[in-house]
Records
---
Amino acid sequence: MRLLKLSALFATSFFLSSVAMAAAFTSVTIGGASYYDLTTTPTKPVIYGGFAGSCTGDGNSTCDSCTGSGLTPCNKNATYPTLILTITLTADTTLPTNGTVTVKIDDTSVQLNSTPYISGSSLTVKMLWSQICSKVQGGTTDCSNAVNSDLVVSISGTGTTTTSISATMQVITSAATTATYADCPEGTPATANTGFCHFTAFPGDSKIYTDPIVSDGYPTSTSGIDFRDLIFFYEEQIPADGNDPATTVGRITNASPTSVIPVSSTVFPPDVDDRLTGLTNGKTYCAVMANRDLAGNIYYFTPATVDPTTLCATPEPVVGLLDDKHCFIATAAFGSDMAPEVQSFREFRNKYLIPYAWGQNFVKTYYKYSPKYAAMISQNETAKIAVRGVLWPLLFFARLSVALGFWFALAITVFGCLTIWGLYRRLILGENVRGEL
């Protein structure tokens, strides 16, 4: 694993440790961390260490613990006690070559792994994660207890216009050990702060929709570090599985292919792009969901007690009104996915459904339930004729909307329905509707 180096230019200068000084550190480069964040608190960069699973690194770079068999907490950029955290700070002035360098966490000095390197305006310090973890209250050298503390790097001496410069960073670690979440299907109370705790797979075009359910308190987690996104581990169903979802799900491990699902937690419930994309149409896939926190730890997997049939789906091309080539609208009603009627439905979908959240939800619901009914209708000629009859009014509305606009088409449709209802009452039922609409 290459050395993880994330660098950024500070939006504001670090606070100085002396009122008299005018110099400051202005940029930082980090190596040997799971994740590095400058966007949340520009005056206090955050360094994350994720301890989950087991892997052996070279001491200078993180390692991938998402390997091997089974589904256990892991981290694709895992830190470990013997890993060296490297911090390089750049000042806006020349630093004293023989300056005294100190590193403290919670006001306790941290033993450095090597002599600090000072060159011009640059200062590099290195320390083991075991040293950082053990210096906090209740800390341990194996980093099994969480850390959330300030790390202060200072240099003082002669040879510059100032006597001392310091920079403050926040170090946060997470040691994930919880393997699975308590499944929370619709109507079942969810355990708070366990992230997303249920999903159901249903097909789309080259994708699978997951429709995940979230627990209260998101993005806060039980480990004290916020969740960041969702990770889906999945496998393609193969002949050896015998078309058995349980067998396919059973082959999913930490080493299986993954799909990252972005989550925006600025609102609740959070916004989720719940699609597993890049899949092959006509092939069946089964997936297991897990939550990933800001330190990169992946845990709270789908438990083995969940019905495996709900974790599998077969993507298909989208033609017809909303769904794939097996959709009764394309094959049963109009006979071809390229029929003019089908093209009109497709135009309506693209213009009035896909651009809006309610339309997208409608499309996803259609994906979820239509295949079963499509198969039933395709085997019954009477049902095909009935469906075709139902679709003609919808086709008229779709074409009118595309040509004249949705609201104008809706007004014409409502007026037409009221007119037909009035004629029915007068001519068929023999009611006197004079003076009524």
---
Amino acid sequence: MTETSTGPAPSVTVLGTGIMGAAMARNLARAGLPVTAWNRSREKAEPLAADGVRIADTPADAVRTADVVLTMLRDGPAALEAMRAAAPALRPGTVWAQSGTVGLEGAGSLAAFAREHGLTLVDAPVLGSKQPAEEGKLTVLACGPKEAREVLEPVFAAVGSRTTWLGDDAASGTATRLKLVINSWVLAVTHGTAEALALAEGLGVDPAGFLDAVAGGPLDMGYLRAKAGLILSGDLTPSFTTATAEKDARLIVAAGEQAGVRMDVAAAGAERFRRAAEQGHAQEDMAASYYASFDAV
């Protein structure tokens, strides 16, 4: 490890520099940690060089000197593929913070890989989207061995404003399970907002009247305001894409099935996201669920 004014600074590799991963890598570098980044599409990672991040051509090159590997990839198979490619250069004992939303099956596969390669796995999905990621204000839901916590402290402090430790056994999937529960609520609120505004449109109701009627009461909430603002402005610059939201919805449904719980709203929501994606909104904000209420033009 290199040294900073506050002590040892772990060398961190970020695999995956999409909306979230890029922001996390940038904040890690700004916090004074040595950072290397890799992305399947190198052009998405290259702007990070301006922040002092080393850009690697391959996962193996990226992890060669890493004390901590942080994965922020689309799903479990993508994370596993990247780590398999990195395997020849991984050192036993390397701390692996798996921060993507990968579902129960994905979490199990990644835990098996960590055991096979002698890695210290921490299940560490994050709460928040683009703006909190850029501001370093994510919430980290972490589950992993106590010996990894000191190494990860400056990493999690750089990317988030709060870390909640949920146990010592990353393979239990405790943090991933909580993340799926939270995301089920986030997606339900997104669809609720989208459908209410779509119904207002269909019935000729001024959406401002709806928002004014619930203002300040128990039916009001910040997330309603945020998603309604995107829909009404027509600016669907993504903080969380429709395609990713569909993926998460299907992971939630699968987790429910495994637990014997019917997730009817999540299943219907996944279909709304699918329809919106087919209409051309896959890479727009998931508030594009609104358009799934109408026939494609």
---
Amino acid sequence: MAKATREAYGEALKKLAANNPDVVVLDADLSGSTKTSEFKKVSPERFFNVGIAEQNLVGTAAGLSLAGKIPFASSFAMFAAGRAFEIIRNTVAYPRLNVKIAATHAGLTVGEDGASHQAIEDISLMRSIPNMTVINPADCIEAEQAVLKAAEYEGPVYIRLGRMAVEDVNDSSYKFEIGKGVEMKNGSDITIIATGIMVQKALKAAEKLGQEGIDARVLNIHTIKPIDSEIIVKAAKETGVIVTAEEHSIIGGLGSAVLEVLSDQCPVPVKRVGVNDTFGESGKPEDLLKKYALTEDDIAGMCREALKLKK
């Protein structure tokens, strides 16, 4: 059954409420949407609604971390990463405090809320900050494990979560590890490196390409920072050409991170699927993904173009 990764966040918080007395949760008056309300139901004494004040949200979380707590601070990605950027940089990341920023409603798939709420720059912003770990789960299984692992990890973490329901690409045997990419499908002709909801699209694209005799490898890079350079370089050496796919601007996101790795360690042709330096607009999520060329057909088409560059 399809479910949004923000739903898995709520479920993970309930587990943390029961198992870790140091975890506290803060929200900026959006707890019904971010699903932090699930934590409030079971542990109201450890839940803090700071109101529509995202900078205060992060500053308060920083203070709680200095008191020995493990704060999860939540809002929509546009506000968490955008409005609170300077506080995250100077108050959380600079002193490397143990604060987790769990940002929901990221990307174009916020849908009808439109460009003002569609954070397509947040990965770029957060990965540019020293000491920040950036995680973008592909499905609910991965999202729940990522939240639980973030609570164990010492230091700032940004977790990107979505509004739209997505199908699981992992099963109950899956084990999430911060900083370790996952090979979802082996292949020898080309590698598709995807993150977040685009992992599902990448797997479908690989299936389409397989029908044409093109053997595509698919990697899930759930941790944008620190990125798993080893799995990326290995894929580049073995397949010779890369296509990246993300529900984010092609400027500063996964594609940029992959290019940085390969330019240093293994230069090969790279094509990027993502939002092409433009704002989004109001619309149904699937319609927006189609209009902005973020479908499995778009990934498959980009792979065909990339293969022409293969030496």
---
Amino acid sequence: MLKLTRRLFFAALSLGALAAMPASAAELDELRIDWATYNPVSIVVKDQGLLEKEFEKDGTTIRWVQSAGSNKALEFLNAGSIDFGSSAGAAALIAKINGNPIKSIYVYSRPEWTALVTSKDSDIKSVADLKGKAVAVTRGTDPHIFLVRALADAGLSTNDVRFVLLQHADGRAALSRGDVQAWAGLDPMMASAELEEGARLFYRKPEANTWGVLNVREDFAKAHPEAVARVLKVYEQARKWAQSHPDELAQLLAKEARIPLPVAEKQLKERTELTHNKIGSEQRESILAAGLALQQAGVIASDVNVTAAVDSLLDDHFSRDLTN
């Protein structure tokens, strides 16, 4: 009887120890992650099956979901339908302020992926010329934030223009049809409009484009820290491949985005930098500046502590040991 009691006692101890252990990648049945044409590194990860190879021995299924814009990636994260999502830094900040439980953990690009675009024969020459005009924009994305900041810098408000809310590709199409007079563009659709239709980027400000960041749901990061670290390891492998294979990367983007190769090359070789990876002070300064500008423009409520929100959003724990 004593031996049986001891056996049960130690069995109970073992079960308790297992229950206390954090969930690991081995206990992860499915990992859900997005890919996006505005995140070229994600396309490499997906195309080369790098996550599938990394988690194969664990029996973890990789489920890919395409994000049409930062707003969609952030909606998916908020709904719990993906674990990792690609967005602009400022878009992630607004989502965080609105209660989206995410952390920005990695930089996949430093892009000039947005500008204000008009048709080749338009008389619009500056942001001031947008007064009273219809502008296509995707709410909750870097182009939306870029447009709001541009209007404020020109002494205009969102009430001075008519926002036509469309996803990025539909915004480009609306400009092409003449349904709107301007569009807050996003690559590769923006580069496509330039090359194929002679669209003009009448307002550019590269430093107002916030970083491309990879976000993770807070509960996933807490439950599966090892898996998060392994995802970033795979992202690094893809980012370094992308840096050393620019021509192949352009071909891959052209295929996945279904765009001509010259359009992909314009996006990648002229307006996308892939040399950064860590979340740090540069990202903090850029996202904070965007947040404060949006607060001044009335997009973020005046009682929100933007600095605290940025600090809560950015988590350098997983990327701090990465090397370029």
